[in-house]
Amino acid sequence: MGRIIAIANQKGGVGKTTTAINLSACLAEKGQKVLAVDIDPQGNMTSGLGLEKEAVDKTIYDLMIGEATIEDVIYKEVIENLDILPTDINLSGAEIELIGTDNKEFIIRNEVHKVKEEYDFIIIDCPPSLSVLTINAMTTADTVLVPIQCEYYALEGLSQLIHTIELVKERLNPGLEMEGVVFTMYDARTNLSLQVVENVKDNLNQTIYKTIIPRNIRLAEAPSYGMPINKYDSKSTGADSYRRLAEEVINK
Ligand code: ADP
Ligand code: MG
After folding, report:
1. Which residues form the AAA domain (predicted)?
2. pLDDT tens readout for residues 99-110
C-alpha cells in the first residue's frame, strides 16, 4: 500500500526540493514504485527529475481547476519505476482561482488517492509557504518530512510548521503523522552544523533521521542537467547519503 510523504517547510532554500528529487529517485533505484508530485509552481522537482517543460501538456494546475483527470497528468516512467505529476507556473494563481470553492483543501487528496494503490511511495514537494497548496499536500499525505538546514536560524519557523501540521491533523486529516526531520547541507568543517544538530535534537521532540545530508556541490549541480544525484554522480557523497535516507525511509 502506498505511503504518501509531503516534504514541507515554509522556509525557502532548506533542501526540500533537493530531498524530494533525490529521495524519490533513490527509492525508485531500490525498486520501489514512486510517484513524484510537484506542487511548487517553480517546478524545480519536475525539471530536476528530467521532465522538460516542453514535454508537459497538462499539469497539476489543470487537475486542480477541474480541467484534467489524474490519468491525464501522470507522466509515466520518466525514470525507471518513477512517474511524475508535474506542476507549472500557473499553479501560483491557484490560490486565487480557488477562492470560494468547496473543499479546496482536499482537491489534490481526492485525485491522488485514486492512484495511491499503484505506488509504494508518493513524494510531494511543497512550496515555501503555508498556502492552500501546502495544506493540500498535508491533507493528501500520511506523513510530513521536514528538512532542516544546518544553519544558525534552523529552528526559526519550526514551531509554526508543527502547529500547522497539528491543526491539519485535528481538523482535516486525522491520520497525519510526522515522518521526521532530516538535516541538510551539513558542513563538517564548521562547528555550527554540529551545534545546530545537537540543539535541534535537544529541543525538538520528533523523529530525527540518522542520515544527515552533507553539503555537496554535486547535489547543487545535478538539477541543471535534469538528473537526480544517483544518475548525475552515482559515487558522490550526496548520492550515498540520499541512498541511505531512502533505505531508512523504507525500513521505517
Ligand atoms: P527548497 O526546496 O527548500 O527551497 P532547495 O532544495 O531548492 O531548497 O535547495 C536550495 C539550494 O541549495 C539549491 O540551490 C540547491 O541546489 C542547494 N542545495 C540543497 N541541498 C544541498 C546540499 N546538500 N549540498 C549543496 N547544495 C544543496
Ligand atoms: Mg523547493
Report:
1. 3-178
2. 888 899 999 999
Is there an atom of ligand 1 within 6 Å of 123 CB?
no
**Which ligand 1 atom is the nearest neighbour of the CA of 21?**
6
73 or 197, which is more confident: 73
Q: Which ligand is nearest to the CA of 238?
A: 1
**CATH, residue 23:** 3.40.50.300
Q: Return the DSSP state at 185.
A: S
Does ipTM come in above 0.90? yes
Domain that holds residue 203: 3-251
Element (H, E) at 82: strand 82-85
Q: What average pLDDT score do residues 56-72 get?
A: 94
